[in-house]
Amino acid sequence: MHNEVQQHPEFTVLIDGECPLCAKEARMMARLDGGRGRLAIVDIAKPDFNAGDYRTTYEAVMGSIHGVLPDGSLVEGMEVFRRAYGAVGYGWVLAPSGWPVFRNVCDGMYRVFAKYRLRLTGRANCVGGKCRVPGTVEGR
Questions:
Q1: Do 23 and 44 meet the contact criterion of CB atoms below 8 Å apart?
Q2: Which of the 8 DSSP states describes residue 43?
């Protein structure tokens, strides 16, 4: 079996490359993809990132992880992880998080993480408001 690189990814993840946890997860997902091109990773912390290219805002993508489907539509939160792992062939790992009994719990846990992500990853005092998450006060 040979690994053929796809021209268009099955899924694109918009990730905060300045977030240590997020960057680690992105590297792991890239390894799982194994160069097949099923998953694209876009760093929203790069100076040339333009949220408008994805019909969203910087504040939205900083507030919750987003992913882009091949048709250009966006998904966010835990659904991004479910689809990203599915794209690289490991959908079974997060499949239970999408089951009716667990979905609300898992999605809620991610929302709590997203709300406190900057503080949890040691970035509560970002400079110039660049990494401020909507609905939070920097330094708290």
A1: no
A2: E
Buried b (16+ CB within 10 A) or exposed e, 8-30: ebbbbbbbbebbeebbebbeebe
User: CA 1, CA 111: separation in Å to the nearest integer?
Assistant: 39
Per-residue confidence in pLDDT tens, the chain, 140 aa: 445 555 689 999 999 998 888 899 999 999 999 999 999 999 999 999 999 999 999 999 999 999 999 999 999 999 999 999 999 999 999 999 999 989 999 999 999 998 888 888 777 666 544 555 445 444 33
Burial classification of residue 53, based on how many CB atoms lie within 10 Å of its CB (0-12 exposed, 13-18 middle, 19 or more buried) = exposed
Q: Where are the beta strands (DSSP E) in 32-101?
A: 39-43, 66-68, 74-76
Closest to 67 in 3D by CA, of 47, 33, 78: 78
18 alpha carbon, distance to own chain's centre: 12
Domain ranges of the chain: 11-129
